[in-house]
Amino acid sequence: MVVVSIFVNPTQFNNPADLERYPRDIQKDADMLSETPCELLFVPTVKEVYPEPDNRVFDFGPLDKVMEGHYRPGHFNGVAQVVSRLFDLVKPDKAFFGEKDFQQLAIVRAWCDN
What Gene Ontology biological process does one annotation of this record name (predicted)? Predict the structure, then answer.
């Protein structure tokens, strides 16, 4: 079964205004998925993903301190938190991630390797 999750992760945003401005159009996203093998669209709420505060801190060495990580401290820790939580909820056999953000993809790969 192919499951696609759409979730705007508040733990990735240092600035609450950035979180509020982040575009959200679930219907448009769902429409785009109609031409894919997606069988289930999972759009959890913040409370479903984070029923309790997630205080885990992940160590990516220098990988999350350069480029975007230099300007957005904590951002990639939030990425690892949400990927971890979504994996816990969905329990995938395989996972596929976009490649538009090379540093984020490297962080996810590092998290998966651990």
Answer: pantothenate biosynthetic process
